[in-house]
Amino acid sequence: xxxxxxxxxxxxxxxxxxxxxxxxxxxxxxxxxxxxxxxxxxxxxxxxxxxxxxxxxxxxxxxxxxxxxxxxxxxxxxxxxxxxxxxxxxxxxxxxxxxxxxxxxxxxxxxxxxxxxxxxxxxxxxxxxxxxxxxxxxxxxxxxxxxxxxxxxxxxxxxxxxxxxxxxxxxxxxxxxxxxxxxxxxxxxxxxxxxxxxxxxxxxxxxxxxxxxxxxxxxxxxxxxxxxxxxxxxxxxxxxxxxxxxxxxxxxxxxxxxxxxxxxxxxxxxxxxxxxxxxxxxxxxxxxxxxxxxxxxxxxxxxxxxxxxxxxxxxxxxxxxxxxxxxxxxxxxxxxxxxxxxxxxxxxxxxxxxxxxxxxxxxxxxxxxxxxxxxxxxxxxxxxxxxxxxxxxxxxxxxxxxxxxxxxxxxxxxxxxxxxxxxxxxxxxxxxxxxxxxxxxxxxxxxxxxxx
Amino acid sequence: xxxxxxxxxxxxxxxxxxxxxxxxxxxxxxxxxxxxxxxxxxxxxxxxxxxxxxxxxxxxxxxxxxxxxxxxxxxxxxxxxxxxxxxxxxxxxxxxxxxxxxxxxxxxxxxxxxxxxxxxxxxxxxxxxxxxxxxxxxxxxxxxxxxxxxxxxxxxxxxxxx
Lengths: 452, 162
Ligand SMILES: Cc1cc2nc3c(=O)[nH]c(=O)nc-3n(C[C@H](O)[C@H](O)[C@H](O)COP(=O)(O)O)c2cc1C
Ligand code: SF4
Ligand code: FES
What we know:
The complex is a heterodimer of chains A (452) and B (162). With 452 residues, chain A is an alpha/beta fold. Chain A has 18 helices and 13 strands. Chain A has helices at 23-28, 33-38, 43-53, 65-70, 95-102, 104-117, 132-147, 178-185, 215-227, 229-233, 267-274, 327-332, 351-365, 371-391, 396-405, 415-429, 431-435, 437-443; strands at 81-86, 122-127, 163-168, 210-214, 236-237, 240-241, 243-250, 256-261, 284-288, 297-298, 302-309, 312-319, 341-346. Chain A has a five-stranded mixed beta sheet, with no helix packed on it. A four-stranded parallel beta sheet of chain A has the order 3-2-1-4, sandwiched between helices. Chain B is α+β, with helices and mostly antiparallel strands and 162 residues long. Chain B has helices at residues 5-15, 25-36, 41-50, 55-64, 84-88, 91-101, 144-161; strands spanning 76-81, 115-120, 132-134, 137-139. Chain A: InterPro entries: NADH-UbQ_OxRdtase_51kDa_CS, Nuo51_FMN-bd, Nuo51_FMN-bd_sf, Nuop51_4Fe4S-bd, Nuop51_4Fe4S-bd_sf, Soluble_ligand-bd.
């Protein structure tokens, strides 16, 4: 069965010849028409459309966007803020970069519509520090939109005013976590806050109600306000509506980004038909389906259980290649859809080395507030790098796993989970490679790809 | 503080973006680092005064965020992505090529003062791995051959300046 056709909604104009990021081009392609339409409606209607659409956030957790908006405290009398999470720092994820670089007005239009729907007067785009060009492009785009009265005071003569500012981070991954992001935007270290009580919807930026949404999520909102929530909900599958953008990297013939109706494509179709399969002479060994913190899947393993199809419960028995690429299916087999970053590893990869690379990332990025995360992530890194440096012991796999097991559920933010899932899954699924690494290392080809 | 007039102007403008002055800490640090090359003690106290904070409030931010530096670097900044997708595609060889071309080690200023080569974490362009950020420009699919070409280009630009 070959792959279904791509359905490019958010990436409709990405890489289109002649399409530029200036406002004239955007307007020629129907830009800001949805904004004009939306500001003529009641804000509650727009929130309702988003609720009906079933849109789930594209930043990683997949939380329903309409529900999140519904939680905002609108009675506090304090201003409501909206923050665009453009931190995009989960390894393997690179979709938001292309939206901001090539189609910034799509994001600005989605942001202003979302601000209008939620009575937000001031919004910030928190962009990664490592994207100076993206920040400049967004600033230029906001200035263009302001000149046309799509942003700023009295938008399109409606009496509604809203400002958008770009705020640059400075190289810390934890700024992607929404409460860490808020601390950072307040001019402090990006130390995540304890939830409760600091749910952004109630006590966010400056202790005011705050909405934090991913770049892609807000672009989807713009589309929803165009076609209507019901029509949107027909794209994809129930519970996983709309399109998903997959960012594929690593060992495939055609890495890149691909947009499909959610749940309509399987991992096998994505990797083989869309991405051209493994590199010549190679076979797939493992894949991380939703950014580097998602649990790894091993080719050859099988996942069995029951799932709901319509009103019925049916048995499923899947190999990696059979799994539909949606939030629920990936969660059912013990991993996650996360931010859509699919990292592929072929048979040349040694899994101890791959984990050592990942552990180096997470130990570097822990904010350091919680002892289990700070010490645990560093300990896991030390064990795995000691192993690849020639001092592996047979019990190291078990030791790694026991350290990882102590972290989740004992930390302020979900980074604790994020840093332990790779170690937990690698050491279980590739147990023999970890147990025998001291022997394996002697036979590893000298010219293999260096990962640490 | 010895900064360009337009830097002072942008500093005053950026503070107006926030209802609470402290929020301007990161933008001010970026602006000053872009102008002065790094963040000096003087800059820290200056920002603190400007934003009505204590110097420690600024210093703790500087030490938390990897992009802020306390000391000068080479004229050009070469940041090579170290994270998994880039490593799978040969990022370590890319980094070694730059180090060899400029006779330097990661994190150090090359002997001619021209570059600082550094490993950084995922640059959010994993589909075009390995990737390298040179100053503010992203370069994609930088294998060892392309790293050599980029090095030659940097050397040529350095020679042209002399
Ligand atoms: C450690 C960590 C890192 C995160 N990084 C990002 C990120 O880079 N970009 C992003 O949009 N969300 C990131 N998130 C998720 C955000 O906390 C938040 O859920 C999201 O921005 C909400 O937007 P959405 O509902 O539109 O998905 C991260 C979460 C955690 C725990
Ligand atoms: S879990 Fe880690 S990153 Fe999150 S608050 Fe604790 S120490 Fe910081
Ligand atoms: S892993 Fe290098 S850019 Fe993401």
